Automatic annotation (TrEMBL):
Pfam families: GST_C, GST_N. It comes from the Bacteria. Belongs to the GST superfamily. It comes from Afipia felis ATCC 53690. Coiled coil: none annotated. This is Glutathione S-transferase, N-terminal domain protein. Residues 1-82 form the GST N-terminal domain. InterPro entries: Glutathione-S-Trfase_C-like, Glutathione-S-Trfase_C_sf, Glutathione_S-Trfase, Glutathione_S-Trfase_N, GST_C, Thioredoxin-like_sf. PROSITE patterns: GST_CTER (PS50405), GST_NTER (PS50404). Residues 89-218 form the GST C-terminal domain.
């Protein structure tokens, strides 16, 4: 049995829920009252994850923390097609790892701004938004050049990978942290593609975004 320690409004938990469903894996959700209960700081939860962070996955007794690590575990363990984590294409794995690390930076910027605005955490929202803007400019430029080469996703393959799953949620939730996507048309197109995937079910705060009128064309 797979158990996901989950918070419904967490972008990091969303990415794990998405992949579990995409892989058609049965799992149990164990809700954790992140806010306002701060249950992730309780002694009981800290025994699972001493860092006090969500999500945590219990895969038949194997405990894995960190959203990106969980994505790697699930795709490597349960996806024989290698679609999400192409173990049969070593060169592409390096690309994926770059974006998994990038996803951590999105968490420390966009998510931090969202925690400040929506959940009143004592964080430096101005610094978080400035950092988010820098990251989004990098992401938008990468996606735009990929589009010119005929690629629709973060990596070179025809299908999305766990790189897209890792980066998507907090980008899609950026408006909740006061971070606008208006200047990033390639990102908006990428979000629209992700939201059009068969297995996609939005969480609260994820809405389709209109393409900016003054934008580079794909």
């Amino acid at each position: 049995m797979i158990t996901l320690y989950d918070y419904a409004l967490s972008g990091n938990c969303f990415k794990v829920r998405y992949l579990l469903k995409a892989l058609q894996l049965e799992f149990t959700k164990q809700p954790v009252d992140f806010y306002p209960g701060f249950e992730h700081r309780s002694d009981k939860f800290l025994k699972l994850n001493p860092l006090g962070q969500l999500p945590v996955l219990d895969d038949n007794g194997v405990i894995i923390r960190d959203a990106q690590a969980i994505l790697v575990h699930l795709a490597a363990q349960y996806d024989p097609s290698f679609r999400w984590y192409p173990l049969n294409r070593p060169g592409m794995l390096g690309q994926i790892q770059i974006w998994l690390a990038f996803a951590d930076s999105l968490t420390s910027t966009i998510s931090a701004a969202r925690l400040h605005d929506a959940m009143f955490f004592n964080l430096d929202a101005v610094a978080a938004r400035c950092g988010a803007d820098r990251l989004l400019r990098v992401l938008d430029e990468h996606l735009w050049f990929n589009e010119q080469s005929g690629h629709r996703w973060l990596c070179d393959g025809a299908d999305p990978t766990i790189a897209d799953v890792a980066c998507f949620p907090y980008v899609a939730l950026s408006e909740e942290g006061g971070v606008s996507l208006e200047e990033f048309p390639a990102i908006v197109r990428w979000c629209d593609r992700f939201m059009s995937l068969d297995d996609f079910e939005p969480m609260a705060g994820m809405i389709p975004l209109p393409l900016p009128k003054s934008s580079r064309k794909s």
